[in-house]
Amino acid sequence: MSPAYDVIVVGARCAGASTAMLLARQGRRVLLLDRAAIGSDTMSTLYIRPGGVALLARWGVLDAVVSSGCPPLDTIEYDVGEVRLASATPRTPGADAAYAPRRGVLDRLLVQAAAEAGAEVMDRTSVRELLRSGDRVTGVRVDGGDLTARLVVGADGMRSAVAEMVGAPTVVSDPLASCVYFTSWSGLRTGFGFHERPGSWIARIPTHDGLTIVSTYFPQQEFAQIRRDPLAAHLGAIRRHAPELYDQVADIVPTDRIHGTGDQRNFYRQAAGPGWVLVGDAGHHLDTITASGITNAFLQADLLAAELVGTDLDDHETTDAATARFGSQRDRATSSTYRSTLDLARLSLSPGRIDLLRTVATSPGATQRYFSMVLGILDAAEFFDDPELLDLL
Ligand SMILES: Cc1cc2nc3c(=O)[nH]c(=O)nc-3n(C[C@H](O)[C@H](O)[C@H](O)COP(=O)(O)OP(=O)(O)OC[C@H]3O[C@@H](n4cnc5c(N)ncnc54)[C@H](O)[C@@H]3O)c2cc1C
User: Fold this and answer.
1) What is the pLDDT of residues 101-129, one digit of tens each?
2) 15 CA to centre of ligand 1 in angstroms
3) What is the C-alpha to C-alpha distance for residues 12 and 3, in angstroms, rounded to an integer?
4) Which of 12, 165, 212, 337 has the most CB within a 10 Å radius?
5) CB of 45 sitting under 6 A from ligand 1
6) What residue ranges do the domains of the chain occupy?
7) For a substitution probing ligand 1, which of 288, 302, 330 has the most ligand atoms within 8 Å of its CB?
């Protein structure tokens, strides 16, 4: 019997919904399912890097994000105490700004785009088991019955059940580095930016409805202590390291409770095997301090879809070769952000970095290029090889 679907995608957020949309646009018969309700929120500080915004633009979804009332984040500030950098958000083809849409909004827009492309969508549906024929995954078991497919995509997040059920090996793993708490306030007079000190990172991220999310990062070793009273730790860090921001929040009540986690794993899992492939956090997770997860998810969806163009999914050898190539591309495309994220998440602001930033701050061009590097638009080697920077140094 022919499988019911070409592709079943498990998980309907930034990785899964984008993958389903792109594969449905290739004319594949796609089922996108999630155990949560479409449009529900999930824990995130929402920031999409310019590279992710450029993909939304290319996919035709950015206009809907903008129309949802999400403000453009077109400036960026970085304060390390004695040095302050400020610039326009570096541009990349297709993106003039970054955005931080509510996840309920972003994920719903992506699911809508997948449905418009022809994907079938089933929410409030949990995948309990995988179906197999020999060592090949051939579908999923949900409460309502069995659903068969030529390819099963696990886009089900860091604790991926699909990865666990296929036994995807972890191929790279690094220790937990930071922990994070965040809440939001209304009406702050502040744009997008960060405050860094040794042992502390604070980000301000404007989102829908005039709200600004403020996140505070602490070393992982402090998690057990901080979780006893996270709001006090959060406000204490803001008071010590971002006093101008503290002046604005000290006398007003946050619009949300405090959220946070100490479980920000750093790993790569094997990306693919017979009849299965992992995208987004399911296959690769990293500390959230550089706000890269959503952009990484988009990038992976795009890479997987490109590898599958024209692939005959009934031809197992060709399909598995395509998904394996996707795995190599994923590793190449994400490894430098992974390394720089681990570096930053150790929260050890070194004197050498302060010196570099002091030099960078003397030149608007170098500042722009520094932010381009931080946001993954410019390669680190290109940043450091720049003749103007070499002159300044
Ligand atoms: C505190 C925090 C702050 C963050 N801030 C940012 C940020 O500012 N910018 C950024 O880029 N990233 C940020 N991230 C990371 C970002 O949220 C993730 O990288 C991103 O959500 C990954 O998307 P995904 O689609 O791979 O997985 P997820 O968003 O985790 O979605 C997985 C989906 O799979 C579904 N699912 C799971 N198991 C099953 C099952 N068995 N059956 C059916 N469905 C299932 C879940 O219901 C869920 O909807 C943050 C994360 C945290 C925790």
Assistant:
1) 999 999 999 999 999 999 999 999 999 99
2) 8
3) 21
4) 12
5) yes
6) 5-46+102-174+264-345, 178-261, 351-392
7) 288
Class of domain 5-46+102-174+264-345: alpha beta
Tokens 């403020």 sit on residue? 214
Q: Identical fold at 5-46+102-174+264-345 and 178-261?
A: no
Ligand 1 neighbour 13 (Cβ under 6 A): yes
| Cα 291 to ligand 1 centre (Å) | 12
Ligand 1 atom nearest to 14, measured from its CA: 25
Contact status, residue 216 vs residue 238, Cβ threshold 8 Å: yes
- 3-state DSSP call for residue 341? helix
Look at the block and give the residue holding tokens 């803001």: 238
What ligand 1 atom has the least distance to the C-alpha of 279? 26
Question: In the chain, which residues have pLDDT < 70?
Answer: none
Q: What is the pLDDT of residue 323?
A: 98
Q: In this structure, which amino acid lies at residue 348? A: S
Helix/strand/coil for 348: coil
Mark 94-123 as b/e (b = at least 16 C-beta within 10 Å). ebebbbbbbbebbbbbbbbbbbebbbbbbe
Q: Given this model, what pLDDT does residue 387 score?
A: 85
Please give the single-letter amino acid code of residue 105: V
Residues 11-52: pLDDT tens digits?
A: 999 999 999 999 999 999 999 999 999 989 999 999 999 999
Distance from the CA of 350 to the center of ligand 1, in angstroms?
A: 31
What CATH code would you report for 178-261? Answer: 3.30.9.100
List the residue whose alpha carbon is closest to atom 16 of ligand 1: 293
DSSP track, 230-257: HHHHHHHHHHHH-HHHHHHHTTS--SS-
